[in-house]
């Protein structure tokens, strides 16, 4: 395969990956209220992570039964009501 054809085939992949990286910080600005979940310390580099279920948008941060937290990165799956956050 020609080198320029290989490069052209990589461009759509880079666009998709770039868009997903840009979308993540916007999600971190939203608040979520979850019916279940827990916060775990994963080490000095990662910090705390939150794994939660029964989540719906709304609230001042990430609210789980343990309390309300702010996270640097949040991934929310609305179809399943699942959420994970890092740097909380």
Plain-language structure description:
With 88 residues, the protein is of the alpha+beta class. 30% of the residues lie in helices and 41% in strands. Strands 4-3-1-2-6-5 form a six-stranded mixed beta sheet. The chain is globular. The chain starts with a helix and ends with a strand. Mean pLDDT is 77; it is low at 4-8 and 10-28.
General form: globular
Largest sheet: 6 strands, mixed
Number of helices: 1
Portion in helices = 25-40%
Q: Roughly what fraction of the amino acids lie in strands?
A: 35-45%
Q: Unreliable stretches, pLDDT < 50, 5 or more residues?
A: 4-8, 10-28
Average pLDDT rating: 77
Question: How are strands sequenced across the largest beta sheet?
Answer: 4-3-1-2-6-5
Number of strands: 6
What structural class is derived from the secondary structure elements?
alpha+beta
């Amino acid at each position: 395969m020609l080198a320029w054809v290989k490069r052209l085939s990589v461009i759509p992949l880079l666009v998709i990956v770039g868009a997903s990286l840009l979308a993540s910080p916007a999600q971190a600005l939203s608040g979520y209220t979850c019916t279940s979940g827990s916060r775990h310390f994963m080490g000095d580099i990662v910090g705390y992570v939150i794994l939660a279920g029964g989540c719906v948008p709304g609230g001042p941060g990430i609210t789980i039964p343990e309390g309300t937290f702010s996270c640097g990165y949040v991934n929310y799956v609305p179809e399943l009501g699942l959420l994970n956050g890092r740097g909380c």
